[in-house]
Design goal:
By secondary structure, the chain is mainly alpha-helical. It has one domain. It contains five helices and no strands. The longest helix is centred in the middle third of the chain and has 26 residues.
């Protein structure tokens, strides 16, 4: 039986994403990017180090609010499409990666559709 190559790639990515190595690699890349961006902002910005640190703080605050807004008010409400996809993503970790849109799950055959109405 020949398996679909796209399904094989998605399965390999799902397995890789669940490893400790992926977690620490992502953490290392993120921290390196933070240092580089702060350094470059400091070097190119004429406002001095305080302005750069203030910009970073405002950016983190804005990101935290937007992330909280999406998670709390869109995924944990009665908006059926978003809340349902979010719940299914937590119950079926190997499917429904596109929480806000099912497009990629449909294209990559990772969409889980619950027929009983519960995840």
């Amino acid at each position: 039986m020949i398996r679909n190559p796209i399904h094989m790639c998605v399965s390999a990515l799902v397995r890789m994403c669940a490893t400790r190595t992926n977690y620490w690699a992502e953490f290392g890349v993120d921290m390196t990017l933070v240092v580089v961006l702060i350094f470059e902002g400091w070097r190119r910005h004429t406002g001095g180090p305080l302005a750069v640190l203030l910009a970073v703080a405002i950016g983190l605050l804005a990101f935290s609010f937007v992330e909280y807004f999406f998670h709390r008010w869109l995924f944990h409400t009665r908006i059926s499409l978003l809340a349902e996809g979010h719940r299914m993503h937590y119950h079926h970790r190997d499917s429904n990666f596109g929480v806000t849109t099912p497009l990629w799950d449909i294209l990559l055959h990772t969409r889980y559709v619950c027929h009983s109405g519960k995840a």
